[in-house]
Amino acid sequence: MRAIRGRAAARRAVAGLLTGLLAAAGTAVGAGTAAAGDAGAGEPQHGGAHATLDGLNVHDRAVIRHDGAVIETGAGLFEMSVTGGGSLLAYGIDMYSSTQQDARYAEVPWRSSSLQGNADAGKIRWILRHSYPQVDNLAELAEEAGARQLTPETAAAGTQVAIWRYSERTESGERPDVTAVHPDAERLADHLERQARELEEPAPAVRLESPVVSGRPGELLGPVTIRTTAQAVSVAPGPEAARHGVRVVDAQGKAVTAGRDGTQLWFDVPDDAEDGGGAFTVQATTPVPVGRTFVGTGAHAASQSLVVAGSSDAAVTATAVTSWAAEGAAPAVSARRDCARGGVAVTVVNRGDAPFTFALGEQELEIPAGATDTATVPVAEDQRYGITVTGPGGFERTFTGVLDCETIAAQPQDAGLTVHNEPVTVGGGDGEVNLAETGSGTNVPLLVGLAAGLLALGGLAVLMVRRKPQPGAGSATTPDTGAENAGDGAEAEGDEK
């Protein structure tokens, strides 16, 4: 994105506390924001599942030694219920972070989880594929590990300990001092740690290529390409797209309700459609690949991140979004967590015949006609954010969430670590399931815009990126989901409104 020459850029960043911001997914905010009625629409979700934490299913004990403290904690397999059907088994990858009762999760690529930048992430996938529950012959697994006998509980604990040794790093870059309580579980952990080899990150079972498009009414906007391991997927437009009379079609303009790997899809926007936006969603029922990561969403964004160890057939989806305008600029805006750069990457697509002008932080920016560009808004670790992009004609898009990229151990600690963890069943048991109860605060200032300054209020910082509406330009808005624009996986961001 380039700054506009010859204009003094006024400060655009403001801070505010929005009551119920994260809980109010689907509520329109401000003029020009489309109602978020399209299921899974808005921020493009390139592929993955959403799930709710059920509890710590099979587990034993582990001991963590940190800065002179000795903490005993539960270690084992979590169970999750997939939205739309199916179940998952998963291990934790943030040893010091708590889980939250009935926490909601979304599937993301490694780069949007605490595995971002972890050179040993591939070894974690190897452990998952070569241990319990993927290997269910526990006698054979015990023999390989030099253990006398393994039960599901000790096998799960040993596997979890081995994963933590690769998923966690102290601030100085050292592996954590964590051991399994049961001797056979510890033997398994040592064996897995020694044998682990690098494997590539698995792709999601369903994803979309080029899922953000824009253009003119009366045109076919696309293509959006399906990539899937499933034999077939269903295709359906969201309510907002349907309200405008938008259809999902093939290259010949024929309506499409199903597809497979390689199918190309277009939005068919009526030529008399008022300026606006919409979405379509593809869905399949297929296992979630072992090694995919899940992060907490919305109010549960700080809940411990998990990695898939096993899956039934489950509902997986991917969403494409579009916007259109009759004249001038035709922008579409998306956002995703960018853990590598410590912020939120805001991408703007302009398929109109005029530049799209807006402001980011203290800089007034312009996207030429036919161009796409991305700028990263710095956000502090564990900080809730709200980023709003506005432009001419009432254009407005808001993205919210929490940036959760680091493990607790990798962050500076002001005091000694205290962990009290007694795993129990979530949703009907004696209480909440915690792998640790340290957590981390969210009252960290948000780094706003491109060096726009530090702003904080009540633990929730909001960046407003605005340009005063001007006559003669169309508006383009899309409803929401909260996932990333990445092409290789579903990135559940916070809620976009």
Can you tag this structure with a few keywords?
mainly beta, 27 strands, disordered N terminus, 497 residues, disordered C terminus
Structural description of this entry:
The chain has 497 residues and is mainly beta. The chain has five helices and 27 strands. The protein has helices spanning 121-129, 138-145, 152-167, 183-195, 239-243; strands at residues 2-3, 50-66, 69-82, 87-92, 104-108, 177-180, 206-209, 212-215, 220-228, 233-237, 247-249, 258-259, 264-268, 276-287, 293-296, 306-311, 313-324, 331-338, 343-350, 356-360, 363-367, 372-378, 384-391, 395-402, 446-448, 453-455, 460-465. The strands form seven sheets. The protein has a six-stranded antiparallel beta barrel. A five-stranded mixed β-sheet has the order 8-17-14-10-12. A hairpin with a 3-residue loop joins β23 and β24. It starts with a strand and ends in a 32-residue tail after the last strand. The model is unreliable at 2-43 and 409-497 (pLDDT under 50).
Q: Count of DSSP helices?
A: 5
- Proportion of residues in extended strands: 35-45%
Order of strands in the sheet with most strands: 2-3-4-16-15-5
Instruction: Give the overall form.
Output: elongated
C-alpha-based Rg, rounded: 23 Å
Which bin fits the share of residues in helices? 10-25%
Counted beta strands = 27
